[in-house]
């Protein structure tokens, strides 16, 4: 579908109440981003110490330390907060919910993960009260559970569309002419038995320790892929 046709569809969509409500919600997110920036500004203006280290703290650190040099100010910070609220809240919550749900539904995996964390804590490998990312990535079963949770229930159910390049392309035995819009749903790819095995519909973190791991990694699309990979991928993993 040509880009200009999609624009016309979006314009026509404003005639429907659901679309108008969606646009209103986007405006509310923008106002929330502005409020977040204003509140943090007020705290810093009053000389209060912000002990919590979050994304907002990092943004204001950039503004303070090298904002003029890299042309990053309050406007850019607001955009970053908007993106985090719009694209990074529900998706991160969905990923965490999936991981916790499947752990609760699979007591054996839950016990195994709990034991790994307890052993790491007892040996002093984990910081308190907050575990550092550099420490968490050294827990193999924890990482396997996170991957498996996102495999079972990817946060985004879109088809991740792409346009067929010039000259057309043969995809899965079917010919698609150039300009055709094609896409694949991550949830479908993640349940492919030829890649993830006959038990692809089951939550089994142990699969990430098998010889087929690298091939499975290439077929994980919870963050998209290639040049269009989700810009919040690392933030989601940190969460």
UniProtKB/TrEMBL annotation:
<keyword id="KW-0349">Heme</keyword>
<keyword id="KW-0479">Metal-binding</keyword>
<dbReference type="GO" id="GO:0005506">
    <property type="term" value="F:iron ion binding"/>
</dbReference>
<dbReference type="InterPro" id="IPR002401">
    <property type="entry name" value="Cyt_P450_E_grp-I"/>
</dbReference>
<dbReference type="GO" id="GO:0008168">
    <property type="term" value="F:methyltransferase activity"/>
</dbReference>
<dbReference type="InterPro" id="IPR017972">
    <property type="entry name" value="Cyt_P450_CS"/>
</dbReference>
<dbReference type="GO" id="GO:0004497">
    <property type="term" value="F:monooxygenase activity"/>
</dbReference>
<comment type="similarity">
    <text>Belongs to the cytochrome P450 family.</text>
</comment>
<dbReference type="Pfam" id="PF00067">
    <property type="entry name" value="p450"/>
</dbReference>
<dbReference type="GO" id="GO:0016705">
    <property type="term" value="F:oxidoreductase activity, acting on paired donors, with incorporation or reduction of molecular oxygen"/>
</dbReference>
<dbReference type="GO" id="GO:0032259">
    <property type="term" value="P:methylation"/>
</dbReference>
<feature type="binding site" description="axial binding residue">
    <location>
        <position position="230"/>
    </location>
    <ligand>
        <name>heme</name>
    </ligand>
</feature>
<dbReference type="InterPro" id="IPR001128">
    <property type="entry name" value="Cyt_P450"/>
</dbReference>
<keyword id="KW-0503">Monooxygenase</keyword>
<keyword id="KW-0560">Oxidoreductase</keyword>
<dbReference type="InterPro" id="IPR050121">
    <property type="entry name" value="Cytochrome_P450_monoxygenase"/>
</dbReference>
<keyword id="KW-0808">Transferase</keyword>
<dbReference type="InterPro" id="IPR036396">
    <property type="entry name" value="Cyt_P450_sf"/>
</dbReference>
<keyword id="KW-0408">Iron</keyword>
<keyword id="KW-0489">Methyltransferase</keyword>
<dbReference type="GO" id="GO:0020037">
    <property type="term" value="F:heme binding"/>
</dbReference>
<protein>
    <submittedName>
        <fullName>Pisatin demethylase</fullName>
    </submittedName>
</protein>
